[in-house]
Design a protein that fits this description.
It is a single chain. The protein has 255 residues and is α+β, with helices and mostly antiparallel strands. It has a single domain (10-192, 228-254), classed as Alpha-Beta Plaits. It is built from nine helices and nine strands. It has helices spanning 24-32, 72-76, 101-108, 132-135, 142-146, 157-164, 199-207, 220-224, 243-249, and strands at 10-15, 44-52, 55-63, 81-83, 90-92, 115-116, 125-126, 152-156, 183-186. The strands form four sheets. It has a three-stranded mixed β-sheet. The longest helix is centred in the first third of the chain and has 9 residues, at 24-32. The radius of gyration is 21 Å and the shape is globular.
Length: 255
């Protein structure tokens, strides 16, 4: 089985309630590996919105490769990928980065962790390496070390689960049951209304724009009829259909 290792399985922890969407993790990764702006990112941050006023929510997701215990990408890669033994990292064979089978591996991965530098058949494939070289030096993955809000942690997955629990899925993500990703998530804390106010009255006041400006909506029902297509990013889209689609989905990473 491709999931067999002789060492510990290492993984990530992401605390959505602490994340400020600063993208320092992604920028640090791009800088450390000297990756130019474009379709190649080894780590990604996704943000999307749901709900309607006053119950709106901004979702955040840190998405490198989750180095699954059962990596279906390895099984689909026809020998171009492997799961290394010491840390449980899922890696592309450096001699196989242009192997066409990596397209099948990309399709199999539910998290869209494999990126290509173009849409050409002979495009070069890239993915998160868990910073194995840094681990060998006793250092953290660069994304984790760069997080100023301490929203990320890294270590043996059994240590992470003992500290943070066993939740492997945030809202909007695919089920972890097939691949068993080496990640633990802490979702956002529920919102609390700290200052009581009349929500209906607030909506009426927002309709009344001064100086002759047009009103953005005419009734409270306009707010409750919002669909995901009305929002710039109304759903999580982990898997891209092309390099341009990938750039569009992760464009905030370069802001």
């Amino acid at each position: 089985m491709s999931s067999t290792t002789t060492g510990k399985q290492y993984g990530f922890f992401f605390d959505e309630s602490r994340c400020m969407d600063c993208r320092a993790c992604v920028i640090a990764c791009l800088d450390w590996y000297d990756i130019p702006a474009g379709p190649v990112k080894l780590a990604r941050m996704f943000s999307w919105e749901s709900g309607t006023y006053p119950a709106t929510k901004l979702h955040l997701l840190f998405a490198p490769c989750y180095h699954c215990a059962n990596p279906v990408c390895v099984d689909a890669a026809n020998g171009a990928m492997f799961k290394e033994a010491k840390y449980g990292a899922v890696l592309i064979d450096p001699a196989q980065v242009k192997n066409p089978s990596l397209r099948a591996a990309e399709a199999a991965c539910p998290y869209g962790a494999i990126a290509f530098d173009s849409d050409a058949p002979d495009a070069t494939a890239f993915k998160c390496t868990m910073c194995v070289g840094r681990l060998e030096q006793g250092k953290l993955p660069v994304c984790v070390a760069a997080c100023p809000w301490r929203a990320l942690d890294f270590g043996p997955i059994d240590t992470l689960t003992s500290k943070y629990g066993t939740n492997q899925q945030l809202e909007g993500m695919p089920s972890p049951s097939t691949t068993s990703p080496a990640v633990v998530f802490k979702p956002q804390m529920a919102k609390k209304q700290l200052v009581p106010y009349d929500q209906s009255r607030a909506i009426q006041l927002m309709i009344q724009r001064p100086f002759g400006l047009p009103s953005p909506f005419s009734s409270a029902s306009d707010l409750s009829s919002v669909t995901p297509s009305d929002v710039g990013r109304g759903t999580l889209k982990l898997k891209a259909t092309s390099t341009s689609d990938f750039i569009r989905n992760t464009q905030n990473d370069e802001s």
